[in-house]
C-alpha cells in the first residue's frame, strides 16, 4: 500500500524578554499545519478485523472481498472505486461504517470531479444468511462473471436476524454497472441481510443500474435517499420483507425506469417467503416529463407475486404510470380481504401522467408471437382499486418545497401543506418511528440537510 504523507511544519516559540510592564506578554505558538490524510490503494482481500481511518482516502483497485472479520470505516473516510472494482462484504464478515452528518463516509468514483459518471465503479455489496425464496435457499449474487461454486459471492440461509453490519451516514456515488442482462451491480446490493443489519442515513446518487436492490432477507432501511438512478431506484425481490421508513426517490428526465420495482419469484409466484416489505413515510418524485417517449418512467410496479404495505406516501410527477399492479399473482394479493399483502393507504398522488384528479390505468397485455391475445391479463384498474375513501388515498398537491430540483432539491412540505396534517396520516406501528404523523418522507425537520450531495459529475 502506498502511503503519502504531507510534511508538518513546526515553528519554534519565541519568548520575549522581560521588560518594563511586559512580563505576561508572550507570542503564542501558531497551530501546527495538519497533515493530509493517507492515500491507500486497496489491492488485496480482507481476512481479519481491519480499520480504515478517519481522514484517509482508500482506492479500490478491483473487487475487494471482506472474507472474514469486521471492516470498520471511520467517519469522514473517502473510498474511491476504479473501473471494475467493488466492495463486497461476504456472509462470513461484517461492515461497521458509521459516519456523521458533519463527516459522512463517501464511496465515489476514482475519477476527478467533473469527469465522474454513473458506472465508474461497482458499488457496495452486503451478503448475509437470511431466507430467500430460491431453490435450495442460497445462491450467488448478481454482478460477477463466473460465480457458480464461489463461496465469496454466496448468500442465503435460515437466519432472518443475521447481521450484515452497519452502514450509516454514508453516500454511494457514480456506481453500478451491467455485466450482462439481468446480471448487474447496483449502488448498494444486499443479499439475504437480516433484521439486525443497520442501514440508516444512506444516499445512493447517479447509479448506472438500480440505486438499491434487496435480494430477499429482512434488512431494514431508514432515512434513505436515492437520486437519479439509471434504472430502478429501489428494487426488491426473492422474498424481501424488511421494514422501510423515511425513503426519498427522485428521477431525472434523462434516465430512470421505476421508483420501485417489486418482484418476488420470477418462476413461481407463490414461492415462500413472498416479498412483502412495509414502507412508511416515503416520497417518490418522477421527472415531470410529458407522458410517452423514452425513457418510460413509472412510480410503483408490483409483479411476479410481489406485495408490499405502503403507508403515508407521496407519489408525484411520474411521466407515465403512478402504480402498475402487473399480473394475476400481485393483483390477487391486492384483492385479499382484510389486511391484504399488497395495499396502499394514506397516500397522496399528484400530477402523474399530467393527471391531477386520478391516476392512469396501467394495462397488462399478454402478447404471443407478436400478437396481443389479451389486452389486460390482470383486469386490475389501478384508479378504481386504489383511490378509495377507506384507503385514505387522495389526488392532492402535497406542496413540496422544491422536489424537482436536481442540483439542490428540498423534499420538505411547505408550511400549510396537507402532508403535514396528522389527520391525513396513519400512526406507524411498533418497529417504526411512531411520531411520524405526516405524509411523505420529510416532515418539519429536514433530515437530509448536511450530509447529502447531488453532484452532476
TrEMBL record:
PROSITE patterns: PROKAR_LIPOPROTEIN
Keywords: Signal
Record lineage: Bacteria, Pseudomonadati, Myxococcota, Myxococcia, Myxococcales
Positions of region (Disordered): 21-40
Residues of the signal peptide: 1-18
SUPFAM superfamilies in the cross-refs: Pectin lyase-like (SSF51126)
Top-rank taxon, per record: Bacteria
Keyword Ligase found: no
Protein name: Lipoprotein
Organism: Myxococcus stipitatus (strain DSM 14675 / JCM 12634 / Mx s8)
Amino acid at each position: 500500500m502506498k502511503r503519502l504523507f504531507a510534511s508538518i511544519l513546526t515553528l519554534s516559540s519565541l519568548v520575549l524578554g522581560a521588560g518594563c510592564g511586559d512580563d505576561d506578554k508572550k507570542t503564542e505558538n501558531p497551530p501546527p499545519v495538519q497533515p493530509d490524510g493517507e492515500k491507500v490503494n486497496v489491492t488485496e482481500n480482507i481476512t481479519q478485523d481491519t480499520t480504515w481511518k478517519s481522514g484517509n482516502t482508500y482506492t479500490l483497485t478491483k473487487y475487494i472481498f471482506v472474507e472474514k472479520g469486521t471492516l470498520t470505516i471511520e467517519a469522514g473516510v473517502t473510498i474511491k472505486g476504479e473501473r471494475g472494482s467493488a466492495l463486497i462484504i461476504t456472509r462470513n464478515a461484517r461492515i461497521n461504517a458509521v459516519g456523521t452528518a458533519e463527516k459522512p463516509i463517501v464511496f465515489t468514483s476514482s475519477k476527478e470531479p467533473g469527469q465522474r459518471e454513473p458506472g465508474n465503479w461497482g458499488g457496495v455489496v452486503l451478503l448475509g444468511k437470511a431466507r430467500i425464496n430460491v431453490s435450495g435457499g442460497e445462491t450467488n449474487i448478481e454482478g460477477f462473471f463466473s460465480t457458480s461454486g464461489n463461496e465469496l459471492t454466496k448468500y442465503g440461509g435460515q437466519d432472518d436476524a443475521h447481521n450484515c453490519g452497519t452502514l450509516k451516514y454514508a453516500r454511494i456515488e457514480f456506481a453500478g454497472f451491467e455485466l450482462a442482462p439481468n446480471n448487474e451491480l447496483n449502488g448498494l446490493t444486499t443479499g439475504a441481510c437480516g433484521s439486525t443489519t443497520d442501514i440508516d442515513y444512506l444516499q445512493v446518487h447517479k447509479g448506472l443500474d438500480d440505486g438499491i436492490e434487496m435480494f430477499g432477507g429482512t434488512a431494514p432501511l431508514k432515512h434513505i435517499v436515492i437520486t437519479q438512478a439509471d434504472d430502478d431506484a429501489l428494487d426488491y425481490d426473492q422474498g424481501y420483507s424488511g421494514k422501510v421508513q423515511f425513503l426519498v426517490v427522485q428521477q431525472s428526465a434523462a434516465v430512470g425506469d421505476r421508483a420501485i420495482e417489486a418482484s418476488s419469484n420470477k418462476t413461481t409466484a407463490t414461492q415462500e417467503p413472498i416479498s412483502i416489505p412495509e414502507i412508511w413515510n416515503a416520497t417518490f418524485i418522477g421527472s415531470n416529463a410529458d407522458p410517452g417517449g423514452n425513457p418510460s418512467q413509472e412510480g410503483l410496479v408490483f409483479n411476479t407475486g410481489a406485495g408490499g404495505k405502503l403507508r403515508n406516501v407521496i407519489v408525484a410527477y411520474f411521466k407515465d404510470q403512478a402504480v402498475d399492479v402487473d399480473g394475476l399473482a400481485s393483483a390477487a394479493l391486492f384483492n385479499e380481504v382484510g389486511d391484504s399483502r399488497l395495499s396502499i393507504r394514506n397516500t397522496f398522488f399528484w400530477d402523474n401522467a399530467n393527471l391531477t384528479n386520478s391516476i392512469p390505468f396501467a394495462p397488462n397485455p399478454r402478447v404471443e408471437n407478436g400478437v396481443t391475445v389479451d389486452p389486460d391479463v390482470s383486469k386490475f384498474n389501478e384508479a378504481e382499486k386504489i383511490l378509495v375513501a377507506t384507503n385514505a388515498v387522495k389526488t392532492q398537491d402535497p406542496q413540496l418545497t422544491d422536489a424537482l430540483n436536481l442540483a439542490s432539491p428540498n423534499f420538505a412540505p411547505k408550511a400549510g401543506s396537507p402532508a403535514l396534517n396528522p389527520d391525513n396520516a396513519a400512526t406507524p406501528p411498533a418497529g417504526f418511528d411512531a411520531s411520524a404523523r405526516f405524509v411523505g418522507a420529510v416532515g418539519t425537520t429536514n433530515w437530509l440537510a448536511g450530509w447529502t450531495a447531488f453532484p452532476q459529475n
